Structures are given as C-alpha cells and as structure tokens.
Amino acid sequence: MKIGLIGVGELGSAIAHNYLKTTHELLVYDRRPEAAAPFVARGAGAAGSAAELAAAVDVVLTALPTPAVVEAALLGPDGVLAAMRPGSIWIDHSTNSRTLLQTIAARAAERQIGVVEAPVTGGIPLAHEGRITVLVGADRPLFERVEPLLSVVGRPVIHLGPVGSATVVKVMTNMLAFIHLWALGEGLMLATAAGLDTGAVFEAIKASCGSSFVAETEGPPILTGTYDYGFTLELAMKDMRLALEIAAESGVPLEMGGLTHHILERGVARYGSSFWSTGIVRLLEDDLGIPLRAAGYEPDGRWAAYEKRG
Questions:
Q1: Cβ neighbours of residue 212 closer than 8 Å, sequence gap 6 or more
Q2: Per the residue annotation, which of 170, 206, 238, 308 is the catalytic one?
Q3: b/e string for 247-263 if b means 16 or more Cβ within 10 A?
Q4: Residue 116 half-sphere exposure toward CB, CA atoms < 13 A
Q5: pLDDT score recorded for residue 77
Q6: Residue 217 in contact with residue 110, Cβ under 8 Å?
Q7: Does the annotation mark 206 as catalytic?
Q8: Is residue 132's pLDDT more than 80?
Q9: Looking at residues 33-62, what average pLDDT do you find?
C-alpha cells in the first residue's frame, strides 16, 4: 500500500523507521524539511505539503503533538481531510482529544473515509523497536482491515471499541505513568536521604512489589541525571489535561491525578515545558540538595535514548 506519514518527531521518526523496513511505499511530510530528510535519504518519498501527501496515498498516518495541531492539519482550509480520496483511511497515532476525533470521524464518514485512532503507549525506545503497545478505536471491520499496518508500528495491538475509546485508555495510562514516576522519585529519595546507596535501592525496588514498568524504564535516566525518556513536560501536561477533561465529563474525582498534575505544573514552572517529563524528580533533588545518581546505569544498547547531551 501507499502510506503517507505526517509528522516525524519523536514518535513519527520511530513509525517511519519501522515502515521503511516493509514493502509498503512510504511518503513523509513534516513542516521541518530537515526532520523528514533522513527518511527521504533512506528511500521514503517527500511531499511538499500535508494536503499533497493526503491526495497521493491510500492511508494517511498522523503523529502530531497536540489536538490543536491535528485539528489544523485535518480540518484547515488546505486540510488533509479535504484532500483525501473516498475509500482512503486516516490513522491517528497522536494522543488526541476524544471529542475532536469523533468530530473528524463524523465528517470523514460523509466522504467515505475511514478513521482509526491508534495512540501508542510504552515509551519511545520500544516504538523504535516496533514493540510499543498500540491502542485502537475503530469500527471492528475497519480495525481488521488495518491491523497488519498497526502491527508495523507496534505490538500488541488492542482493539478497545469505536473511535474515542483508545484516547480514554491512552490518557488514563499516561496519568498512571506520571503517578508511578513521582512515587518512584519519592521512594528513591526516602532511602537515599536515609543514607543508603541509590543504585542498590533501585535494584531492590525492581525486585520488589514496589516495582513497575515506569520504575524499570524511567529509573535509569534519573540515575544518570539525563532524565531523557524522549517525552517532554509539555506533552505530559497536555495528556494530564485531557485526562482531567474526561474525568470532569464522567464525574470521576481524580485525587492522585490532580496532585500529579500540580507536580507537573511545578516542573514546568521551574525547568520549562521543553524539559523531559522524567525530570520532575529533579524537584526533589533540588529541594533537598541530594542527587539521585548511581554508577552502572550509563546508556547502553537498551538505553540509547538516554545519552547525555552536549
């Protein structure tokens, strides 16, 4: 099939990397030509605009940072939806707004265009390996048609219901990840401030009932001081706002979610929105003057995304 990818940032780069290993023809577009250039050099086609890409492919993929950017790309005056052919399919890998997705899906149905929401969860390193989890909201027959394409992006591929379903699960799991991250930081600091070796404490956490996927994957960039998990505080704040919106609509109080949102706000106020989300643990380090560093966690093949910068 002819696949078009709009957005080759952190996630989009991983998606492009995996599609270039298949027999599908890949066309890419990004507002920053330099971001698309490495994939064009590897054999992808380049489009001059998002609309040009949309008109030329069977399936449009988007991996964009915010719902506002998705809305502008899809529904703008020279938007993707207007350029797509009847019978083509839009797959959105962004973390999006449920309301916006349902609005676009309704408009797309009028033009016989299929819509699949497919946000991913598990972290950028797994995305590059094609092992990130893909959460899917789509009509069942359409899901079955595109499941092989979704399997290029990651595994497992989990169908959760109609459009809008996957967004609820995605922002909920991200909320849980941020809660776990802060809990990990407090646990590491509690033991380190009590005089224990941080590295040994981290190994004990991983071997205990207090372990989690977040501890195992986001612990090393904390211990090395890089904090780089490929995910910024700006994106974390966006996901938490979406979770709180769904909670308000559903009448669900989020006590831990609300507290974690406040902690993320403190992180943005102190370090800026472009700082890595894992860096909220630095709030504890700076407040107490105790660094959570440990030898033996320098980047290796598994932690290549955490290399120190500069």
A1: 180, 184
A2: 170
A3: beeeeeebeebeebbeb
A4: 27
A5: 81
A6: no
A7: no
A8: yes
A9: 96
